[in-house]
Amino acid sequence: MGRDGGKPLLLLIGSSARGSREFILRTVSRRYALWLLQPAPVTWEEPYVVGSTRVDNTRPDLLTEAARGVAAEREVAGVFCYDEGLVTPAAHVAESLGLPGNSPGTVAACRDKNATRVALERAGVAQPASIGVRSLDEAREAVEKLGFPVVLKPRGLAGGMGVRRADGPGEVESAYRAASGASYPGVPVFDVSVLVEEYVDGPEISVDAVFFGGECVPLAVARKQVGLAPFFEETGHEVDAADPLLCDPPLLEALRASHAALGFHTGVSHTEFRLTANGPRLMEVNARLGGDMIPYLGELATGVDVALAAADVAAGRRPETTPSRRRAAAITFLYPERDVEIEAVTVYEDRFPAEIHGADVMAGPGTVLRLPPRGYISRYARVISLADTVEQARTALLRVPELVELAGRPVEESS
Predict the structure, then answer these.
(1) What is the pLDDT of residue 1?
(2) Where on the phi/psi map is residue 182: left (φ > 0), alpha (ψ -120 to 50), or beta?
(3) Domains in the chain and their CATH numbers?
């Protein structure tokens, strides 16, 4: 018996950042042997993988060739990927090897917000009106058709990057520049690169749901906090095992209908909604696990391991979806008040109340954090709370200013 201990082997396409994704490998590697495919050598992933292949995993042809090389030597059970920039190449590998998963076309349609809008419009799924544009002039024409307020967003990004609201004519140019200037490694560049959309009011939520064998099961509903207006930076999330949205018929129907329209049938997806007075309006579908530690919050609150469910489905196994806990977890991300170069971030664990589960530093000395539109996701720390009710979890996070201290040097916003 080799290093894999006889466990089924999954091809892991990219590992992403340790601070935000190590919890996934920690839990999945207990049940599955992981073979990592990425350009960089193995570093922090070493305790969790049984082998690796160095390859440009953004290129489906090279990645598929490397995956076939592994499959020629070992029995491969599935392809596992949670990186936004790599889910489409991963889908090519699964299709090529005849392994469980969605087609590359389906995954690409989830990543392309314009393609998502077209598919959902045909299926009659409620969503904001949306117009794709390729220039500032076209953006202004779209605004004339939709009326203010509007939201301008990059066509292929996620996590609120480059998303900005415009309330009047004087704000359209800066919003367009923010949306067209945002980028992320591995994300394709579209000719029609920006979407101008109707602004939809109401609380924002996300749903991490698992699709397997014709069933759709929501695993974690995260109620989102946003800040740094007019941008939409995600500053926190709350996950409650007792959230009534987990069994809300209109929301579940929107989930089923949207994924059917896109052809998504196997895996865990991260779908974002606005809850309006007229019901849920779908904002985007992501063909991957949620970010911002949402799957981890879900496991803390419900006992259902969302990351392991994704791995199970990738291996063709029915996931475990029965909750074993009924708690509430919340996370808050700390942003500087202005652009800053980090000197030190100090966490005072001795001050933690019982409801604080943990805190992590996210930016070390010398790091320059710039607020939108000069930079995005400029966080210096995160704090997670865990309690019996969402109110208790939320209240515990009010003490964050006394738990985490930032020391930094202001930097010029124009530099």
Answers:
(1) 34
(2) beta
(3) 9-99 (3.40.50.20), 129-198 (3.30.1490.20), 201-326 (3.30.470.20), 330-415 (3.90.1170.60)
